[in-house]
From TrEMBL, chain A:
Pathway participation: Carbohydrate metabolism; tricarboxylic acid cycle
Record has Iron-sulfur as a keyword: no
Signal peptide bounds: none
Keyword terms: Cell inner membrane, Cell membrane, Electron transport, Heme, Iron, Membrane, Metal-binding, Transmembrane, Transmembrane helix, Transport, Tricarboxylic acid cycle
Designated name of the protein: Succinate dehydrogenase hydrophobic membrane anchor subunit
Provenance organism: Parahaliea maris
TM stretches of this protein: 20-41, 53-78, 98-118
PANTHER family hit by this protein: SUCCINATE DEHYDROGENASE HYDROPHOBIC MEMBRANE ANCHOR SUBUNIT (PTHR38689:SF1)
Cofactor mode of binding and number, as noted: The heme is bound between the two transmembrane subunits.
Binding of heme, residues: 69
Bilayer topology: Multi-pass membrane protein
InterPro entries, A to Z: SQR/QFR_C/D, Succ_DH_anchor, SuccDH_FuR_B_TM-su
UniProtKB/TrEMBL annotation, chain B:
InterPro entries associated with the record: 2Fe-2S_ferredoxin-like_sf, 4Fe4S_Fe-S-bd, 4Fe4S_Fe_S_CS, Beta-grasp_dom_sf, Helical_ferredxn, SDH/FRD_Iron-Sulfur, Succ_DH/fum_Rdtase_Fe-S, Succ_DH/fum_Rdtase_N
Catalyzed chemical reaction(s): a quinone + succinate = fumarate + a quinol
Homology family: Belongs to the succinate dehydrogenase/fumarate reductase iron-sulfur protein family.
Domain 4Fe-4S ferredoxin-type intervals: 135-165
Organism, scientific name: Parahaliea maris
Pfam families registered for this protein in UniProt: Fer2_3 (PF13085), Fer4_17 (PF13534)
GO molecular-function terms, A-Z: 2 iron, 2 sulfur cluster binding; 3 iron, 4 sulfur cluster binding; 4 iron, 4 sulfur cluster binding; electron transfer activity; metal ion binding; succinate dehydrogenase (quinone) activity
Protein name: Succinate dehydrogenase iron-sulfur subunit
Superkingdom of origin organism: Bacteria
EC code: 1.3.5.1
GO annotation, biological process: respiratory electron transport chain; tricarboxylic acid cycle
Amino acid sequence: MVTAVTSFGRSGLSDWLVQRVSGVILLAYFIFIACNVINGVDYVSWKALYAQTWVKVFSLMAILSLAAHAWIGMWAVFTDYLTERLMGSTGNFLRVTLQLLVLVTIFIYVVWGVQILWGY
Amino acid sequence: MLKVSIYRYNPETDDKPRMQDFDFDTQGKDLMVLDVLEQLKAEDTTITYRRSCREGVCGSDGLNMNGKNGLACITPLSETVKGNKLVIRPLPGLPVVRDLVVDMSMFYAQYEKVQPYLQNNTPAPAIERLQSPEDRAKLDGLYECILCACCSTSCPSFWWNPDRFIGPAGLLQSYRFLADSRDTATDERLAKLDDPFSVFRCHGIQNCVNVCPKGLNPTKAIGHIRNMLLSRAT
Ligand code: SF4
Ligand code: SF4
Ligand code: FES
């Protein structure tokens, strides 16, 4: 058993499952948006669309999915290429710093997303 | 004349690896890559590689030939040579001991992790532990592995994390014992695999399937392990 404390769910299985489920939610959301955009949108119809509670909830779901998906995905990329084995202690420093940066960015986007969805 | 280019490196005398070129006369025969190496070694005895059975059974001559891993002894020139050129390198991703010989310690350490032996703590029967033909059939496509490391050393996930990702060869053996009806340690085995590296570093690229000289399918075995973990946890 390899320990990994900075991964999303600490367990490989849960990360894997979250990655798959969030991927499906994101796909559904992008198809939903694409359908709406293809039919043509203006300010009034777009605002009416997002006035509906279920659209807000669906959007929040997509934002949270994106957050989890990005965390898991970036963590996998960083732990592949920025490791102590490949770069010595620089690898650890770079990896942890970038991971922190990714986390803060994700956090800001989630808060901002909620603000946009419910703030207007 | 076949242009043969061989990776040479002797850490005691060279500061860095180099490629040595040879012109080789196949005399129109479709030789195996190992035959070419043997004949070249007869001329230049310093060329170093591993080999033993020369018939695809021992797994000691896993090499990278024109960019693809395989066993030199069962890879005919007609299969690997393109544009009259044959480039032979050691298996990628492992430290080179000398020329085409790599240090397999990391590969074996991962193999050791999966406890590749039958575990059964119930009292042993008088003669043997029986298995139905159906249960025995579940081991087909798993037990044939000869640990040549062609698969694991072609796997990018193993290149980056050979210390944490078990790799296709180890995982195929892991599933060989998970699938064995006579093994009673299934739960303990699975518990050791549920971290983000051991199994889940596999991204399904299938390089392993592409190169296995025994035609085995580690990706499929990894999928089975994942399903076992899933049904155990949900
Ligand atoms: S699975 Fe195939 S390629 Fe991998 S070690 Fe076994 S025999 Fe070699
Ligand atoms: S399928 Fe998995 S084990 Fe096989 S080469 Fe790809 S990442 Fe490696
Ligand atoms: S020499 Fe034994 S497998 Fe090639």
